[in-house]
Amino acid sequence: MTGYTAREPTASAPHFIPVPPCAAEGAPSPVHATGRTLNWGIVSTGTVAELVAHDLLMLEDAQLLAVSSRDAARAAAFAAKHGAVRSYGDTPELPGHGHLFADPEVEVVYIATPHGQHYEVARAALEAGKHVLCEKSLTINAAEAAELVELARASGLFLMEAVWTRFLPAIHRALGIIGSGELGEVAWLHADLGFPADQDPRWRLWDPAAGGGALLDLAVYPLTWAVGVLGFPQSAQAAGWLNQDGVDPQEAITLSYPRGRQAQLMASLVGSCPRNATVSCTAGWLRTGDPLHNPPFLEIHPVGAEDRIERFDPVGHNYAYELRETTRCIQEGLQQSPTMPWDHTLATMRLFDGLRAQLGLKYPNDHHH
Q1: Alpha-carbon distance 354 to 360, whole Å?
Q2: Do 166 and 142 touch, CB atoms closer than 8 A?
Q3: What is the DSSP letter of 283?
Q4: 64 falls in which pLDDT band (50, 70, 90)?
Q5: Are 87 and 68 in contact (CB under 8 A)?
Q6: Which of 191, 212, 289, 331 has CB 3.0 to 4.6 Å from 277, enough for a Cys bridge?
Q7: 185 and 151 in contact (C-beta within 8 Å)?
Q8: Which residues on neighbouring strands pair with residue 159, listed in sequence order?
Q9: Which Gene3D superfamilies does the protein's record reference (predicted)?
Q10: What is the rounded CA–CA span in Å between residue 19 and residue 274?
């Protein structure tokens, strides 16, 4: 198969995602301060930005200083709702986020624009000297991601892809159970995520310029389970189709690992599904509740022992964990998170580039580099 060859990090051992301090068992709540208060800006005012703003306000050492949107009225309404001190909208000379990045008091920004804009917006933020937490997928392709990583590295700034799932206690508990050997060796993994999305070509999910489609929007969550349990694969195959606009409504992905282990991932914008992850092992199996990217419970089924369910209560909308990690890293002078390092983002983008080559999936951004 073309397009994907495993490169570092190979990490074939299971549960190699380290547990962040705020998600470990018995750890302090993610809302408790770990250092000085940081001034935050939020770029874009969509649904995810609303949830993140709510959780950001729970942190003892975070202040929501500013928000930006193309629409000044929307930015002002968002600021009023979430207690942001300032709001910025587009003007003839500068987009709203440009004004926000020019604000000397903003230290760290959360970028919630559509995927197709991540590269240019994150680049502008880093060039303005801001630390960056950017919605997944970090960029459209590996070339864009590598440029952002190099810029962050050279600028001495923190940069992280906002794969919030990696920081949740339920995920770390699951990886701990699998790593403990209680269920034996991992044999295979299945993870699916999908929903029937209204097929409006103007919606970012169906817009090629926005980086629309199931792969970049949904597949990162099933992939998080595969990477957490098995590491990055030796090879990857994708089967799927493209609609009349060249966007992928659905794909099945098979990842192959040493010793015959496999992961099967499904991402769909056309079908409803259980939205869970199942890890099959030689002495039992584990399954998440719905949804797999924020599971309220885990089912553990050891062979020859009692089945059990472990439940997890959310903190706000559960974005507090990635916000705590970002805050802690910046306070400690780290440029990348040990739990969501740049290598993992780059390996993910290379993997997606390879899968896109198999699907024939192209985006306008691909021509820029």
Answers
A1: 10
A2: no
A3: T
A4: very high
A5: yes
A6: 191
A7: no
A8: 132
A9: Dihydrodipicolinate Reductase, domain 2, NAD(P)-binding Rossmann-like Domain
A10: 27
- Determine the angle formed by the axes of helices 47-56 and 72-82, rounding to 10 degrees: 30
Residue 239 makes CB contacts below 8 A (sequence gap 6+) with 251, 252
At position 92, the amino acid (one-letter code) is P
Instruction: Name every residue whose Cβ is closer than 8 Å to that of residue 117 and which is 6 or more positions away in sequence.
Output: 210
Q: Which residues lie across from 135 on neighbouring strands?
A: 162
Cβ(81)–Cβ(56) under 8 Å? no
Do 171 and 304 share a domain, yes or no?
yes
Query: How many domains does the chain fold into?
Result: 2
Does some domain include residue 203?
A: yes
The tokens for 206 are: 């169906």
Interatomic CA distance for residues 272 and 338, integer angstroms: 34
In DSSP terms, which residues pair with 192 in a beta bridge?
Answer: 266
The verdict on residue 285 lying in a domain is yes
333: left (phi over 0), alpha (psi -120 to 50) or beta: left
- pLDDT reported for residue 1: 44
Which residue's structure tokens are 């000085």? 36
Tens of pLDDT, residues 215-256: 999 999 999 999 999 999 999 999 999 999 999 999 999 999
Digit-coded pLDDT (tens) for 184-211:
999 999 999 999 999 898 899 999 999 9
Segment 322-336, tens digit of pLDDT: 999 999 999 999 999
Same domain, 64 and 185: no
* Phi, psi dihedrals of residue 324, rounded to the nearest 5°: -65, -45
- Is position 136 annotated as part of the catalytic site? yes
Domain containing residue 272: CATH number:
3.30.360.10
Retrieve residue 58's tokens. 């729970």
Q: In the numeric block, which tokens belong to residue 349?
A: 């983008």
